[in-house]
Structure formats: C-alpha cells, structure tokens
C-alpha cells in the first residue's frame, strides 16, 4: 500500500527511523549524526571512493500554501534535512500532484543540484521518475518531479517479508537494465537504496532521484558504475533474505551478524533461489573483491544486466485457487419459514397432502383408455412404414446408379476450419518518423504475460492521430516464415472511445520502411480493451505490422500523464 511519504518525493532515505522535522535531526555540518555515527538521512557514511561536500544546516523556511512560479502550491513537507527540504505539491496549471526539492540558492550544492536535475530530465527514460522542472528563482533553487501516488516504496515491500524468486528476478532485471541505459548517457545514481526504488501497481519498478539524490547530499564517486552495481546487488540480497548485507541495520532491515563478513544468501535464509543468490554475490564487493568464488564479479550495471539475461527465466508462481465452500442445505418448515419455534408452542406440522384421484372406472374411462391405446398403435405403425420406405428408397438409388457419390455431404457447404494461432518469433517498434515510443517494450507484447506492455506516449489531441506531427504508432512482428494471416486479437491496456488499428503486410522488421509500400490486410475500431481483426480472406505474409491510428483518452498513471494514449499487452495472430 503506497503512502504519501513514500510516493514520488525523494525523502531522506531514513526508513522511518527518524522524524522529518529539522529540529529532530541532529547533524553536523557534514551531515553525520554525532550520536550514532550514521548520516542524518539514516544511511551509513560513504565508503572509499565516495565524497560528501559540506552544506549549511538551515533549510528554506517555507510553509504549506506557498506557491512557486505562481504554479506549484506546496502542500506537505515530507522531510527537512541537510539544508534542503522535500515537499508534496500541486501543479495548479496541470492539476496534478508533483514532488519538489527546495534549497537556498546560496547552498553549497545548489549549482550541482540544478546541473544534475537538468541532465536527468534530458534522459527521458520512463523507468525513472521524471524531472519536470529545475529553476533558480527568488533566492531559491527548486527541482520539480513526478509524484506517483499508487507506487509502493521497496522499503515497505521488504518490511512485509522476502520476495518470491520471480519478483526478485524482475527487480534486479529492471533496475540493472535501467541503470545500464543511464550510465550510457553518463548519468550515475550513487544513492540506490530501497527508498529510491518504487514498485507500481502494475508490477513495474521506477527509480527516483537519478543524479539528483547524490547531488542533494554532495555524494560523488570515483567509480560510479561500481558503486551503482554494488547497490543493485545489495537490493537483490535484501529482496532474497530480508537482511541488509552489511553489519549495520539500515532501511528497516537487520544487518548481518558482526564479525562474519558477507555470507551467501542461502546461508542467511533457507530456500533462496541459487542463481539469484549467486548473482547478488557477484554484484556485491568487499574492498573491491567479489564475494563470489565461482563466477567473475559484475562491476558495471551492463555486466550485471547481461548476467541476469543469461539466467533461465524465472516464471511467476502458479495461481492458487480456493475451493468454494460446500453448499449448506437449509431446513424449511411450511408456514414458519425456518424461524425457531417459540417456547411452549408445539412444532409446526406439515399440511396434509391430498391423495391422488382414483382411476377412471366408468364406461367413459374405459373408452378413453382404449382410444389412447389405438392412437399409439397407429402412430407406431405409420412411423415404421415411413422408415422402411426411406431405407428402400436409398437402396434403389444406389442400385440404379442415380446417386454414385459416396459422400452424403457433397452438396453441403465445406466445414469451416478452426483458426490456427500464429506465434511471433520477434518484434520491433515501427517508427518511420525516427521517434520511438517504447522500443524495448515491443518484445513484451507476445510473451504470454498480460502484466507487461508496450506503451505509447500521451498526446493532447485525439482520439485520431494528427498526421501533421504523428501518422500513427505500431509494432511489426516476425512470424518466422510466410503464413496465411487472417486476423489478430490484441489485448489493450486502456478502454474508451476509441482505438483504431490496421494490419499491414510488411517486408521486414525495419522500423522505417515506407507504409505506402505495405499491403493493407484489415482495419478495425473498438472502445473496449480487446480488439479483434478479421480479414475477408487470408494474406500470405511473414512480417505483419500492427498500426494504431487512434487512441482513447486515458487518466494519468505511473508511466505518463492524462491524455490520448494506448498500451498493448498481448498480440495473437490467426491464420
């Protein structure tokens, strides 16, 4: 269950151990708690290779109701620590909740925070909580970012217990892939803690605070890829064991026993998935040395992502069905409707049943019985005569050669064959304008899992696409060989008025082939979450394009704002 303090604002990562008010945080100028040796945000001091810059302890004195840029109205202070504060706010222009980080313009880290926020905003990867604005105004620096009200912080997920292997697999797979993309653009996180990971209601993981979290706290690293990889390994270790892989307790998790060092997950908790446990050890490191003795260490998110991809895919657990309760027979007393008999009253007696009428013994009755018997005998005789006549007629036709066709269905219409499901072997997003929507998500549309999607961005005009800036959106599928394609069934995420899609015969998986060169198969429109397309006659094709030209108006979710958009969960072709 998502809480306001764990939605989208990057809080102080204290796991709820310390109050957010400024006066409750005992911090020195470098942000370290003098009472317990931990950082003011609840984490341990930086390891070798990481540095924290000094910062003033005072945060901007603002209050609920204060408005930034005549647009962002502050509503609730989530945390105030280390010279900056984080708020839940309302974007009055777009009427949506947002998160805001605030710090004085003369803060020692103000310039670094602005640079980090602007660099993160340029990435535009939906796997990260998006930076929406970064402004210096009226002696304040503020960073505005998405607020995800239906997302659950990983800290809360782990507090409920260790994850199932499939969930832990999804976590390390999605986070490592996202950080691989970030490092390719020169961006590091350096604060990948359980409070920086959010799980949405659809089971997707979003990462908040890319580059910004570290900049707010003045954290740098000489080996940023190694630091982020080790952090992902710690997240996986915690997901498998519900223990923090260091001696100190952190983020609501108990640390490992003191003096024993880093031990394998299956030594901490029985039943841990062996492959995932080994993967966590390969990502974790002590003084630069891998904790795994069998496989080489993973020192970058890309190496870790490739190691995850090389593992056999872990399937989700089979759903369990509970048998319905047995039907309980109830008693019914005529006249009392099952009500208990009052004390002193005799039990209700059932009403007497009238006896059946006596048989007809009169002359009229005997005549009626004989008449019915005669009618039955006549009917049986007539039926037998008609049956014999039919059999003799067929025999005569066969003997004089008038009907030599042994197939009695020769004059009937041929039977309709059941459609055959054609399974794609590959897919690629089709974007002839050079602007993809979700290129990595194309393979999720035929994996048999309705919880994974290929998503479009949202548009302000609709439902029909405006050819002036976008003719359509789609995916081209490879069926492996030429097949007779007669239609498709598409499972959509958003229902409403309306979705229009067309099947085209393509020549390849090229994302930029000319649409005019393709053969149109069929077009259909729907207002539900399922779209059925059936062609008048099959078309031989190996590559088939699903081309969307209209999308319904859908509310905001964890991946995009409100607007005209669509997402494809599954596509099944028939032939």
Question: What is the assigned CATH homologous superfamily of the largest domain?
Answer: Transferase(Phosphotransferase) domain 1
Write down the overall geometry. Answer: elongated
Runs in which pLDDT lies below 50 for 5 or more consecutive residues are 1-51, 55-59, 287-292, 331-338, 398-414
Strand-residue proportion: 15-25%
Q: What is the radius of gyration computed over CA atoms, rounded to a whole number of angstroms?
A: 35 Å
Please give the CATH architecture of the largest domain: Orthogonal Bundle
**Whole-number tally of structural domains:** 3
Describe this structure in words.
This protein is of the alpha+beta class and 575 residues long. The model is unreliable at 1-51, 55-59, 287-292, 331-338 and 398-414 (pLDDT under 50). The chain has 9 helices and 25 strands. The protein has 3 domains: 4-146, Phosphorylase Kinase, domain 1; 152-310, Transferase(Phosphotransferase), domain 1; 421-574, Galactose-binding domain-like (Jelly Rolls, Sandwich). β23 (553-554) and β24 (563-564) form a beta hairpin. α3 runs antiparallel to α8 (301-310). Strands 16, 17, 18, 19, 20, 21, 22 and 25 form an 8-stranded antiparallel beta sheet that branches. Strands 2-3-4-5-7-6 form a 6-stranded antiparallel beta sheet, covered by helices on one side. The protein has a 3-stranded antiparallel beta sheet with strand order 8-9-10. It has helices at residues 110-123, 154-159, 165-184, 212-217, 224-241, 265-268, 274-283, 301-310, 363-399; strands at residues 50-52, 67-68, 72-81, 84-91, 96-104, 131-137, 140-146, 152-153, 197-199, 205-207, 219-221, 243-244, 254-255, 285-286, 289-290, 421-422, 426-430, 454-455, 473-492, 499-506, 519-526, 530-550, 553-554, 563-564, 567-574.
